[in-house]
Amino acid sequence: MKAFGEQYQQRSARDPATENDAPSQRRDPREPVPDFDTPFRAKLYDLLRWRRDVRRFKRDPLPEGLIDRLLGLACLAPSVGLSEPWRFVLVEDPARRAAIRTNFETCNAEALSMQSPDRAALYARLKLQGMDEAPVQIAVYADRETVQGYGLGRITMPETIDYSVVTAVHTFWLAARAEGIGVGWVSIIDPAGVTAALDVPQDWIFIGYLCVGYPQAEDDTPTLQRAGWEHRHGTGDVILRR
Amino acid sequence: MKAFGEQYQQRSARDPATENDAPSQRRDPREPVPDFDTPFRAKLYDLLRWRRDVRRFKRDPLPEGLIDRLLGLACLAPSVGLSEPWRFVLVEDPARRAAIRTNFETCNAEALSMQSPDRAALYARLKLQGMDEAPVQIAVYADRETVQGYGLGRITMPETIDYSVVTAVHTFWLAARAEGIGVGWVSIIDPAGVTAALDVPQDWIFIGYLCVGYPQAEDDTPTLQRAGWEHRHGTGDVILRR
């Protein structure tokens, strides 16, 4: 696999990480290590319990600059080899939004047709996207071709690039919820159709489509559980020892 | 795709979600919605900034019951269709740990051989796993075959099952850091070898191998940046508008 080394060697000549690793990016050793105390942890657990996958949004716009700030926090997520492979596409154009909504409708109609007879009526009642109301919509991609990180950590598992982007989405989600903002991750969608509608590089991996806005209601119980579709099972069957 | 409906129909007959969706799992409407105030958010951002991918651990054991509690919090992560597809394998047997360490060594030697000449020496100096010291080690899997969730949301994107597990890992990671516990995600590994060493179902998707324990040091700067391998680039090139 000679190409591997060559790919990153070319970058080394152009952009050596060590040169850009400026002292200003290093920690001020005088900054104390934060103390994550019991009250903070209790509130963090509240945040985890009250994060929701939101489908019903208010149409109110979000405060100026908030999304950029939340995306900045998302970039604190872990990434394989410090590759930071996340790409966030803010979808603003009405025609592009309409194309993505149609994409969802087609996929959702097909999913409905595949439901078993005893679940189809319930499925049809579920609201599975918030595209009509959510003021902010973000298509999230992973750039597997990035040379950032020099390929470290992803030779045997190239999918860790995608996983890095998922942790960024999850970081965004938690930070948004802490601001009272809801996020809904839409996956009933054809990735190739989204990529075509948004005119982004074909080799980017589509990770998910996020609807973002103030939620109509807050809850600590998943919407699908409240709707009677599925319920949480806890940790009983998911922890093994070897 | 008749098999799709049938698969979930069989489960419906056995285990209707609506029957198990007991009132006790519903929110007590008297519980107030948490107030995530400015001081909490500031500390949450500290948590995001001070989470690290840890490779240098103390050998001290973790408090009794802590890992089970952290895994319980991990299960609050979002999952596609409420499928909760995460499977956590606590690796305790010394022979299995040794097999996985050998697996890493083999993959890492190959990765070293693929480095460009000007990066190989730096790569060789990096510490890329903490398996010799970390008191707790967890192999994390995704069960794409689970019937939980009745397939909702994953027809066009079956990989969202894997993504759900990644959000659980990230939840575990943040909750651990809030307890002063470090997590290191090892991806320089051959998934099939790990699965064979652990005797888990062949069709589970290996997501990552976590080393867990008290870190030797705390920092707000990624280890790879401090080592001069790569640096953070910020949000400049990762946000597009369409």
Explained architecture:
Two copies of one chain form a homodimer. By secondary structure, chain A is an alpha+beta fold. Helices cover about 40% and strands about 10% of the residues of chain A. Chain A has a four-stranded antiparallel beta sheet with strand order 1-2-4-3, with helices on both faces. The first copy, chain A, is globular, with a radius of gyration of 21 Å. The interface between A and B is large, with 124 and 124 residues.
What is the compact description of this entry?
Two copies of one chain form a homodimer. Chain A is α+β, with helices and mostly antiparallel strands and 242 residues long. Chain A is built from nine helices and five strands; from the N terminus they run H-H-H-H-E-H-H-E-H-E-H-E-H-E.
Give the topology, please.
The structure is a homodimer of 242-residue chains.
Chain A: H1 2-14, H2 17-20, H3 38-50, H4 66-74, E1 86-90, H5 94-113, H6 120-125, E2 136-142, H7 160-178, E3 182-186, H8 191-198, E4 205-213, H9 223-226, E5 239-241
Antiparallel strand pairs in A: 1-2, 2-4, 3-4
